[in-house]
Amino acid sequence: MHFFKNVADKISNAKFLFISPHKHEMIYNTAAKFGIRSKKIIVKSARRDEVPLLLSLSKYSVFFIKPCYSKQSSSPTRHGEIMAMGIPLITNCGIGDVAEIVKRYNSGVLIKDLNQENYSRYSEMIEDIPFDSQKIRDGAKEYYSLEIAVKKYAKVYQSILK
After folding, report:
1. How far, in Å, CA of 90 to CA of 103, rounded?
2. Contact 3, 62 (CB under 8 A)
3. Would you put residue 47 in left (φ > 0), alpha (ψ -120 to 50) or beta?
4. Spatial CA neighbour of 125 closest among 104, 111, 107
5. pTM of the predicted model, to two decimals?
6. Which residues of 62-89 are buried (b: 16+ CB within 10 A; e: fewer)?
7. Distance separating alpha carbons of residues 132 and 104, to the nearest angstrom
8. How large a percentage of the chain has pLDDT more than 70?
9. pLDDT the model gives residue 127
10. What is the pLDDT of residues 88-138, one digit of tens each?
11. What is the DSSP string of the chain?
12. Contact in structure between 86 and 133 (CB atoms under 8 Å)
């Protein structure tokens, strides 16, 4: 919310869409605590098959995950889905291979430290950073492709069995 408050202050028509099956009231209450008017927040529940339609409404997708020890080797499922839709991502470093993927495919903005200084700086510049949706989609296909994953796993198993 802190990041979005900075975005909303700089981009007057910005809206923040939450796709969440629960805690809608908590989301609205948290937004109010940050001085974000409820008309700037959209909260929707969605079945798995409805998520792409809702994501398609986004110019950017944002997820911040606390960079704790247990997240150093995790990979957020939504990251691949977001890239597959060609949507640039705004996220933090320290979560599995997310930073490496974002850099490799120029698929978003990485915020090293989650603090007011960075929220302000990045909320000012996101509108000016060019992203190529097709290249982001191609990156998702290259990195997350099931066919490629099967080939990589087969190589690992073949090397073990030799």
Report:
1. 12
2. yes
3. beta
4. 111
5. 0.82
6. beeeebeeebeeeebeebbbbbbbbbbb
7. 13
8. 98
9. 77
10. 999 998 888 899 999 999 999 999 888 888 888 888 777 778 899 999 999
11. -HHHHHHHHH-TT--EEEE-SS-HHHHHHHHHHTT--GGGEEEE---GGGHHHHHTT-S-EEE-----GGGTT---HHHHHHHHTT--EEEESSSTTHHHHHHHHT-EEEESS-SHHHHHHHHHHGGGS---HHHHHHHHHHHH-HHHHHHHHHHHHHHHH-
12. yes
- The CA-atom distances, in angstroms, between 57 and each of 52, 145, 149 are 9, 24, 29
Q: Do residues 107 and 87 lie in contact, with contact meaning Cβ atoms separated by under 8 Å?
A: no
CA distances from 111 to 3, 14, 43, 123 (A): 11, 19, 24, 11
Please compute, for residue 147, the number of CA atoms within 13 A of its CA located in the half-sphere on the CB side.
3
